[in-house]
Amino acid sequence: MIQRIQTLYLLLSAILSGGISFVLPFWTDNNGEVYFLLDLFDTLDWKFVSLLIAFVLSALLSLLSIFQYKNRKQQIVINRINIVVNFYLLGILVYHLLTVPGENQISEKGIGLFIPTLVIVLLVLANKAIQKDERLVKSVDRLR
């Protein structure tokens, strides 16, 4: 399980979604106040609450996919669902950044905004490695 490269990709995506996203800043306003993911939860706006839920869901789906190593087809499906969740995250973040009129509230974007993009790349790489394993197993089965 741990020796497979897709497990490392999935573990890294779980760490990015579940841990690093709570540590890295998402943006800084004009007053110099830095906003993290948990700070956005205090506003009780549906967009920000859904961001928190989607980041946690993404981390849980990555961890669930790691433990589905015996069922590769199900692992691929879980990863595809996780990619959709991360596209949702990316869409909500871009929507929020583009709808702020005249940049009144957000002056500097943080590195936390790139987390969904990195997770999507890691999930695609994991799916490619899982498909490669699936092809290898099928080719060995044909030789029997």
Characterization of this structure:
- The chain is mainly α and 144 residues long.
- It has one domain (5-136).
- Helix content is 71%, strand content 4%.
- It has 5 helices and 3 strands; from the N terminus they run H-E-E-H-H-H-E-H.
- It has helices at residues 5-23, 37-41, 46-66, 72-99, 115-143; strands at 27-28, 34-35, 108-109.
- Strands 2-1-3 form a 3-stranded antiparallel beta sheet.
- Helix 1 runs antiparallel to helix 3, helix 1 (5-23) packs antiparallel against helix 5 (115-143) and helix 4 (72-99) runs antiparallel to helix 5.
- It is elongated, with a radius of gyration of 18 Å.
Q: How is the biggest beta sheet arranged?
A: 3 strands, antiparallel
What's the end-to-end separation, in Å?
A: 24 Å
Secondary-structure element pattern, one letter each = HEEHHHEH
Silhouette: elongated
Query: What is the strand tally?
Result: 3
Structural class: mainly alpha
Strand order of the largest sheet: 2-1-3
**How confident overall, as mean pLDDT?**
83
